[in-house]
Specification:
This is Transmembrane sensor. InterPro entries: FecR, FecR_N, Ferrdict_sens_TM. With 318 residues, this protein is of the alpha+beta class. It has 3 domains: 100 residues; 125 residues, Jelly Rolls; 70 residues, Phage tail protein beta-alpha-beta fold, CATH 3.55.50. It is 36% helix and 31% strand. The protein is built from 9 helices and 19 strands. The two termini are 31 Å apart. 31% of the residues are buried.
């Protein structure tokens, strides 16, 4: 189960922490009621919870198989079956869930991908038809090419596609049901939670949201945002901002801090979290993708926020 377009990263973060506490057996009665309230207040919260449970099941299954293949005997068996042993195993499982959430929250997506990039801002990938995908940091793509289809799925992140002109069949990019269809062109696709933005540098593309009945055609210098499967209005693109990542820059103009932090988060092994009213404040500027810590400090100074590096792999802005 890949992360749903109906859940946000924050909801998945909260679900992972609740699951870690529940698996570790440390939920108090008040916390159980708080968890139930959180699950019931928004259907997307329960969906995020289910996604984390799927992740936990995939982690737990190999351990169960290993135990089944080597059944413990004698004293070892009694130790393994003791309440203390079960508690230790449960706590270890909770730690495993939390560790995956911190180190690789996109574990399930990566299982489906043919290409997963690291934290470098550009990773060139030559596709089977000769087209080139310049894959951004923390991006995952899967592709299916044969004589009848040239199909790419953008599972996460951002990519600039330079499609071989004049080739058939038509080249398509799918983002959770949103489809970009081209013949020969260069265009950028940026996937964020529940939103896909397509900007065309040259050529022409047709974009249809998962819930749209017709496609919208984009020509050079135009862009469109598809939100929750519905395409918006075709607008003039800010190509300098859209393509700045190709040269190691993040250019934003009146963008919420939460979106800026999410973009910077692709370029570091740190888990970057933003909480409170700071997340909705808007900011403009140019930030280096080579110096994420410096960019975070610059943003914090601009919006009067505090940056706390709470854990070795987690940084919080509030």
């Amino acid at each position: 189960m890949p992360p749903s377009r109906n859940t946000t990263e924050e909801q998945r973060d909260i679900a992972a922490l609740w699951l870690a506490k529940q698996t570790g057996g440390s939920l108090t009665p008040d916390e159980r009621r708080e968890l139930e309230h959180w699950l019931n207040v928004d259907p997307a919260n329960r969906l995020a919870w289910d996604e984390m449970r799927v992740l936990w099941a995939r982690l737990e299954k190999p351990a169960q198989q290993a135990a089944a293949s080597s059944p413990p005997r004698g004293v070892v068996a009694r130790q393994m079956m003791s309440p203390k042993a079960w508690l230790t195993a449960t706590c270890a499982g909770a730690v495993a869930v939390f560790a995956v959430w911190v180190v690789n929250p996109h574990f399930l997506e990566d299982l489906q991908a043919d290409v997963v990039s690291g934290h470098a801002y550009v990773m060139p990938v030559r596709l089977p038809d000769g087209s080139v995908a310049r894959v951004g940091a923390d991006t995952a793509i899967a592709f299916d090419f044969d004589t009848t289809r040239r199909h790419v799925r953008l599972l996460r992140g951002e990519a600039f596609f330079e499609v071989t002109p004049g080739s058939t069949p038509a080249f398509t990019v799918d983002v959770d049901g949103d489809q970009i269809r081209v013949v020969g062109t260069g265009f950028n696709v940026d996937r964020k939670s529940g939103r896909t933005t397509v900007a065309v540098e040259h050529g022409e593309v047709a974009v249809r949201g998962a819930h749209d009945r017709t496609s919208r055609h984009l020509t050079p210098g135009q862009q469109i945002a598809v939100t929750s499967g519905a395409g918006g209005t075709v607008e003039e693109a800010d190509l300098d901002a859209s393509l700045a990542w190709l040269s190691g820059r993040l250019v934003v103009r009146q963008v919420p801090v939460s979106d800026v932090i999410a973009a910077l988060g692709r370029h570091t092994s740190q888990r970057l979290l933003v909480r409170g009213s700071v997340s909705g404040r808007r900011i403009s500027g140019t930030f280096s993708l080579d110096d994420v810590d410096g960019s975070l400090d610059t943003i914090a100074a601009a919006v009067d926020a505090t940056v706390v590096r709470a854990l070795p792999l987690v940084t919080l802005m509030f």
